[in-house]
Specification:
CATH topology: TIM Barrel
Largest sheet: 8 strands, parallel
Number of strands: 12
CATH class: Alpha Beta
Strand order of the largest sheet: 6-3-2-1-12-11-9-7
Number of domains: 1
Order of helices and strands: HHEHEHEEEHHEHEEHEEHEHHEHHH
Distance between the termini: 33 Å
CATH architecture: Alpha-Beta Barrel
Oligomer: single chain
């Protein structure tokens, strides 16, 4: 335990150095600002770094730890958002990585089928749904599909896939999971097998995988993008089985929370804001030691019911390490990174979030980034 703690602290110190070095024309950042910035993953508009002042500022000034890419801009109902072609996207991601003082998580939802940001019409390889793979249930097919996805992402300098979905397809008419073919199966064993094969292929290609949506979104009848989502009457403990087994098999990627309300787990807060769910269930009971990401904090299940400061405080104190602001719901906020960082800093100053809580997330985030291939670890410091 002592050796692991020392290694984690040393890693954090080494990755802080590029930030702390004085940049031309600007003073060095303080360590708290850096740690807070690493807890933010932000979406943005623009297909080149030069045409995206919002994200350049967020990386340089707010030291954000990650970005998330989209092909479609929801607020303006238009394309392109970030993605035009393979060549364009590879240049964008490389330029973003080079802007950062430490490895930047560059994330995307490339699940396959309907939830694919990399469309075949834009020159990317075709993809299939998780449901299709689960129905075939062929290890060779699932591995081949996951390997193709991972190699595509690697060639585009994308290092994190917000996949696989391990929600059980307990409600096939679910508008956001089953209805879109995002679940491998209603059977836990089939979900576990296909998700594990997918994660193995990702890992071999240097892509970080993300299990979602904890503690289970498959039984819902509503979409948490659009409003309050209650699974109290439909959720089953069997929905935890994929997490339990994959975590026990030494899963080292990330877990994304769901914005679902589940009264047996927490009678007051949805999962993303629930300490009982994130720290109590995911960390203590299931033994997950890695990074926890929120689902998009701007989705209506959160944004319509909580103020931003309250939601941020609850999520961090619940145990969430990276707050995702996809910036792609009803409106676009060009300075969302600065706004969120200032809120977290104020909460720390007021004592509503402890410095130790920030340190814990920073340590886990740095350990996750240490898994990235060396070219991604070093790209920001060249």
């Amino acid at each position: 335990m002592r050796r692991l703690k020392y290694t984690s602290l040393l890693l954090g110190a080494l990755l802080l150095q590029p930030f702390m070095a004085e940049a031309a024309g600007s003073p060095p950042a303080d360590s708290l600002s850096i740690k807070i910035g690493q807890m933010l993953m932000v979406g943005f508009r623009g297909t080149t770094a030069e045409s995206s002042p919002d994200i350049r500022r967020a990386i340089r000034e707010n030291h954000i730890g990650g970005v998330v890419l989209f092909d479609y801009d929801v607020p303006s109902r238009s394309r392109p958002r970030n993605i035009v072609s393979p060549e364009q996207l590879a240049r964008l991601t490389l330029d973003l990585q080079t802007l950062s003082g430490a490895p930047l998580l560059i994330a995307i939802d490339q699940e396959g089928g309907k939830v694919s940001r990399l469309k075949e019409a834009a020159g990317f390889p075709p993809s299939v749904t998780a449901e299709h793979l689960g129905n075939i249930n062929s290890p060779d097919t699932t591995t081949a599909v996951a390997r193709r996805t991972a190699r595509t992402l690697r060639n585009l300098n994308i290092n994190m896939n917000l996949a696989p979905v391990v929600d059980l397809n307990t409600n096939p008419r679910n508008p956001v999971i089953g209805g879109l073919g995002r679940s491998f199966s209603a059977h836990p064993d089939r979900v576990i097998q296909n998700a594990s094969l997918t994660l193995d292929a990702f890992e071999k290609e240097g892509i970080l995988g993300t299990l979602k949506h904890f503690p289970g979104h498959g039984s819902s009848t509503t979409d948490s993008h659009l409003g309050f989502t209650d699974v109290t009457a439909s959720w089953s403990p069997s929905e935890l089985l994929p997490y339990r087994k994959i975590i026990a098999d030494r899963f080292s990627g990330a877990v994304m929370t769901a914005h679902v309300f589940n009264a047996p787990l927490d009678p007051r807060y949805p999962a993303t804001l629930s300490e009982a769910t994130v720290t109590g269930l995911l960390r203590r009971e299931l033994g997950f030691k890695g990074v926890v990401l929120s689902d998009d904090m701007q989705m209506k299940a959160i944004a319509d019911h909580y103020g931003l400061e309250e939601a941020v405080a609850l999520a961090i104190n619940a145990g969430v390490d990276i707050l995702v602001f996809a910036n792609n719901t009803s409106r676009y906020e060009p300075r969302i990174a600065r706004k969120a960082a200032e809120i977290i800093r104020t909460l720390v100053r007021k004592g509503d979030i402890s410095p130790q809580r920030i340190d814990a997330s920073f340590s886990r985030i740095m350990a996750l980034k240490k898994q990235l291939p060396l070219n991604h670890q070093k790209a920001g410091t060249q």
